[in-house]
Amino acid sequence: MEPFLRKRLAFLAFFWDKIWPVGAPDDGVLGLPDPEAGAEPEPPAAEPRSSPAPAQLFRALYDFTARCADELSVSRGDRLYGLKEEGGYIFARRLSGPPRAGLVPITHLAKATPETLLDQPWYFSGISRAQAQQMLLSPANGPGAFLIRPSESSRGHYSLSVRAQASVRHYRICTAANGLYLQKGRLFPSLEELLAYYKANWKLIHNPLLQPCVPQQPLLQDGWERPRSEFALRRKLGEGYFGEVWEGLWLDSTPVAVKVIKSAYVKLADLTKEIQTLKSLRHERLIRLHAVCSAGEPVYIVTELMRKGNLQAFLGSPEGRALGLSLLLGFACHVAEGMSYLEERRIVHRDLAARNVLVGDDLGCKVADFGLARLLKEDIYSPSSGSKIPVKWTAPEAANYRVYSQKSDVWSFGVLLYEVFTYGQCPYEGLSNHETLQQVTWGYRLPRPASCPAEVYALMLECWRSSPEERPAFAALQETLDAARRRLHPALT
Question: Where is each Protein kinase domain found (predicted)?
Fold first, then answer.
């Protein structure tokens, strides 16, 4: 009998709750998620399959005094939930004050726009499930923080997201023709009344609703921050430790490269500082930052597009293999120049390799991904994770003890020189990461490539000295390589 009366006479929900209190057995738990599950449950099977119309809210334009028991007195500005229309009247339930329902002349009411929800501190429009989760798990919020948002999967419905310790639970709020419900059999005329009920009876959803979610400020709030909608991803260029790289268009006109950051691998909390560093760097031998999209996920880092791709792949292509010694030395000089600029500003790259150097149409090289390696979570970028750390490019002190410095970048530059003069060949070919580290520790060094001048190979060996303090600075490497290029090709002076 209880479910029948609750369903047929939903506007008397307050009365039914008095007769059948919360502690009494009922079938209202249907539609709740498993407390251990994170997925939003589907609406109960008993409800209509078609999407019901959203709840209709009204606002009183004028005062109205009831003239009989069937009518409802309202004051100007009152908000009401319209249950049905009867001739020139709306049978409505008042949302403020004692919960009462009755007839109000339609001439005294105006439809309330959905934007009225925006006045509520717990309502967040236009955010995704992932964004809600990120905000609720931010330091500004604790267990019991909650918000309501439009459902992503079901138009016209809502989702209640609640923080429970270190996780977030999501509950579907369904919109029916005569109310809103989170549990089958418990209808409410508004989100406000639904929230008030579950705040008082939070055990029904296994999570208390203590305070509205504190909004998370975007990581960046300046001219560099752009909406994700401005960028169209056209063609995937590659994938690495940090995420995917796409060729895209900015505002349908400007070709750009978009690095889509993998939030699962990157420490997003440190991203703000790193992006600020990227914005402060200006050099013709460093990849130029155009914009960032850091509000929500995934994070985009948008840079200039270098059409010939990364140096390692380019050197292995037919065009790259046809290049002579002069251009190979030019590539080495370009990278040394860019790294010298980073060295002056005490920026450690941590992942210098030919794959992280990009080539333009003019065959100019630019260093990319500088500083991003520090954002990787420790379990991804560590010796214990095997192939995840680029051991064959990493200095022994960095591979063994995670001691990164400008001198560990110099070691990596020596390996990059080997890549350049072998036309993109993988260093230590045939050796595993473990064998490479073992051999290098015992004193083994890569042999001189056939196309490499003796004085350039001497520089490689200097880069690979066991003691970091004995390795040359990038400024000295740049000067020596420039001198070698001029000496071997006097026409370039």
Answer: 231-492
Least reliable range by pLDDT among 8-22, 51-65, 145-159: 8-22
Q: Which CATH number fits domain 25-53+117-212: 3.30.505.10, 3.40.190.10, 3.40.50.10860, 3.90.550.10?
A: 3.30.505.10
159: closest CA among 144, 145, 174?
A: 174
Burial 91-122 (b: 16+ CB within 10 A, else e): bbbbbeeeeebbbbebebbeebeeeebeeeeb
What Å distances lie between residue 471 and 2, 23, 467, CA to CA? Answer: 82, 75, 7
Determine contact, residues 301/276, Cβ cutoff 8 Å. no
- In the chain, DSSP finds a helix count (H) and a strand count (E) of 13, 17
Angular region, 236: left φ>0, alpha ψ -120 to 50, beta rest: beta
**Predicted local confidence at residue 227, as pLDDT:** 87
Our measurement of the distance from residue 344's CA atom to the centroid of its chain's CA atoms, rounded to an integer in Å, reads 32
Average pLDDT, the chain: 80
Residue in 78, 351, 369, 409 annotated catalytic: 351
Residue 86 backbone phi and psi in degrees, to 5: -130, 95
Cβ atoms 112, 58 nearer than 8 A = yes
Could you tell me which of 225, 229, 232 has the C-alpha nearest to residue 278?
A: 225
Flag whether pLDDT at 241 surpasses 80. Answer: no
Question: Locate tokens 């380019």: which residue?
Answer: 314
In whole angstroms, what separates CA 120 from the centre of its chain? 26
For 57-112, give the CATH class. mainly beta
DSSP 8-state class, residue 247: E
Structure confidence by residue, pLDDT tens digits, 78-115: 778 888 888 778 898 887 666 688 999 888 887 765 44
- Residue 351 annotated as catalytic: yes
Contacts for 71 with CB less than 8 Å, ≥ 6 apart: 64, 102, 103, 104
Q: Where are the CATH 3.30.505.10 domain residues in the chain? A: 25-53+117-212
Q: Which two tokens stand for residue 279?
A: 């914005």
pTM over 0.70: no
C-alpha torsion angle, residues 105, 107, 108, 110 (rounded to 10):
120
Task: Determine which of 36-45, 259-268, 322-331 has the lowest per-residue pLDDT on average.
Answer: 36-45
Per residue in 18-42, pLDDT tens? 455 443 333 333 344 433 333 344 3
40 CB contacts (<8 Å, ≥6 apart)? 33, 129, 151, 153, 159, 170, 171, 172
Please indicate if the annotation marks 259 as binding a ligand: yes
Residue 68: pLDDT band with limits 50, 70, 90: confident
Question: Please, which residues bridge with residue 179 across strands?
Answer: 176
Supply φ then ψ for residue 246, to 5 degrees.
-125, 145
> What is the distance between the terminal CA atoms of the chain, rounded to a whole angstrom?
97
